[in-house]
Design a protein that fits this description.
homodimer; alpha+beta; Jelly Rolls; four-stranded antiparallel β-sheet; disordered N terminus; DNA-binding
DNA sequence: CGCAGTTTTGATTCATCTCAATTTGTGTGG
DNA sequence: CCACACAAATTGAGATGAATCAAAACTGCG
C-alpha cells in the first residue's frame, strides 16, 4: 500500500522549517544521520487522508507544505476536529501507543509531508540524545497543546475561543515568516466550529461581530487583524460577575494557603 | 527544595501496578536497571500540590497510591481540570517540552508517587529499547486521552459526558482489581464539572436523573452502577434529528467517496 | 455541637443551537 | 462564456439546554 522510496537527499539541513520541526536544533552531524532514516515525501491532495483512524501505525509525518486537520469520531458518527497542523508540525503521534492510528488526518489543501518511519526513528534516537530529546519535546508539546484546547472547549465563550484561535494561528504563521495580521483560513467555518465546540453559524456570527467592532476584517476566508490588542482583550473575559473574582473571605484564604506550598511539605521517603 | 533519597529497593518488580505503569512489560533484567534510576517515593497529603504550573520540571511521577487531578488556569483565573490520575498513571509529562510544568497536579486524597528523574530516564531509555518504547507509549496514550476528552467537551451533552466519565472510571478501576460497579468518587461535583465543561449544579442534576432512571445509585460520592448497558447507551446520543444521520443524497456520497482512499492515491516521491 | 464545605433542588435567564432563508463564491458542462 | 449546481457563509427568528441565582439539606470535621 505505502510505497517508501529511500530518501536520496531529503535535506533537513536546507529546510527552512527545521527549527519548528522534529530535527529542531540538531547539529550538522546528527542532522545528516537523521536524514538517513527519512522515508521520502508524500503528496496528499486537498480533501484526501494522510491516514485514518484504525489504520496500522508505522510512521509519523512532518508537514513539509500545506495544511491539515485531525479529527476523531464518536460511536454515533459525530466528529470533532482535534487540531490543525501547518508546515513543520508533526502528525501521527497518536498511533504510537497501540500501533494503530486513533484519528484521521486530512489535507485541507494540496500538501506534502516527510515520512519518518517510526521504528527507525526510535532506533536512531537511542543513539542521538539530541534527537531523542527533540522527539520527547514534540510529544510533550502535543500534550500541552491538548490542554490549551481543552481550555477553549471547557471554559471559553464563543468570542473568547475564536479570538484565541485567530491569535494562535497568527502566532504560528508569524513564526514561519508570514504576516501576523493577514492570512487565509484553510478550513471552513464548520471545521473551526468543530474544533472550538461550536456550530458553524455561531462561528460566523462571531466573525461578523469582530468585524462590526473593527477588530478584524473578514472576506470569506481572508482574515486581516486590524486591532491585535483588541483581539487579545477579547480572549480574556471581563470578570463581570463576582464568581470570577478571587475569593476574599478568611476561610477560603486559609484553605488556599494550606495548599500552596507544593512539594516543600511533601514527605520524601526512601523507598 | 526537593529532597531526593536514592531508592534502596523501590521494587517495581513487586509492584502490582507494574503493567499499567511506565515499566510495563519490561523484563526482569531491564526492570532492575529501571529501579536504579528511581528517585524514591513522595507523599502528598490531600489537597496539596505535587507540582504547580510554572515550576521547573525535572522529573515525572508515577502514582503509587491515591488519586490526583491536573488543572490549568486561564489568564483571567478561571480553571479547568484536564484529567484525573489513579495508581499506575504518570504525571508531569507536560513539563518535558519547555522544562517547566504547565499545569498543576493536586492530590485528591493522601497519596504517594514514585519520583522518576527525567534526565536519568532519558539516559536509561537510550540503552533499553523496551523502556524507550514504553515511555513513548505512555506519552502517546496521553495524547490520545486528550483527544477523547476533547470529544467529551466538544460534542457530548451533559448526560453523555457524565456517562462516559463514569464508565471510564469504572474501566480504569476494574483494570486495577476494583469493582466495576461500585466505587467512591475522589473529586467534588465541581471538579467533575470542570473536567466535563459543566457547572456543578448541572452535574448534580445529571446524577439525580441517572438515579431516577435506575441506572446508578448515588449516595454522596459513593456510586453504584446498576445498569451498565443502560449507562453505555446514554453515552451515545439517539440520533433524534436527521442531521445526525449519514447523508444519503448522491452528491454528498460522491464527495465522501472521493476522500476515502487514504494513502493509496498519495504520490510518493523520492526526496 | 456547630460550622463550613458540598450537594441537591427549584426558578429563571441567557448563550448557543436549531431551523430556515438568502447570499456569495466556485467549479462544470453545454 | 454563461447558466447551473452545489458548497460555504451570512443572517434572522425562535427553541432549548445549560448557566445562574437562590435556598435548603446534608455531611464530616474540629
Amino acid at each position: 500500500m505505502k510505497i517508501e522510496i529511500p530518501s536520496l537527499q531529503t535535506a533537513c539541513a536546507q529546510c527552512n522549517l527545521r527549527e519548528f520541526c522534529l530535527p529542531g536544533d540538531l547539529g550538522n552531524i546528527d542532522m545528516d544521520r537523521f536524514n538517513t532514516v527519512l522515508g521520502g515525501r508524500i503528496r496528499i491532495k486537498r480533501g484526501h487522508h494522510l491516514y485514518r483512524s484504525g489504520e496500522r501505525f508505522s510512521a509519523i509525518y512532518a508537514v513539509k507544505s500545506g495544511f491539515f486537520k485531525t479529527d476523531v469520531l464518536t460511536d454515533d458518527a459525530r466528529d470533532h476536529v482535534t487540531g490543525f497542523q501547518m508546515a513543520g508540525e508533526i502528525l501521527g503521534m497518536d498511533g504510537i501507543s497501540n500501533e494503530v492510528h486513533t484519528c484521521n488526518a486530512v489535507a485541507l489543501e494540496d500538501s506534502e509531508v516527510c515520512l519518518i518511519p517510526y521504528a527507525d526513528l526510535e532506533g536512531l534516537s537511542r543513539e542521538l540524545r539530541t534527537l531523542q530529546h527533540q522527539l520527547h519535546k514534540v510529544m510533550s508539546r502535543e500534550i500541552v497543546r491538548g490542554h490549551s484546547t481543552m481550555l477553549l472547549l471547557g471554559v471559553k465563550r464563543v468570542d473568547e475561543s475564536l479570538a484565541a484561535f485567530l491569535l494562535d494561528l497568527s502566532k504560528r504563521l508569524t513564526a514561519r515568516g508570514y504576516s501576523p495580521t493577514e492570512f487565509h483560513l484553510r478550513m471552513t467555518r464548520e471545521e473551526i466550529g468543530s474544533y472550538l465546540g461550536l456550530k458553524l453559524e455561531t462561528v460566523s456570527r462571531s466573525f461578523s461581530r469582530f468585524q462590526e467592532e473593527g477588530i478584524i476584517s473578514v472576506e470569506q476566508r481572508h482574515i486581516r487583524i486590524l486591532d491585535i490588542s483588541g483581539l487579545k482583550k477579547l480572549m480574556t473575559r471581563i470578570p463581570a460577575n463576582p464568581r470570577c473574582i478571587v475569593p476574599t473571605n478568611s476561610q477560603k484564604m486559609r484553605r488556599l494557603q494550606g495548599t500552596s506550598r507544593g512539594l516543600h511539605e511533601a514527605a520524601v521517603l526512601s523507598a
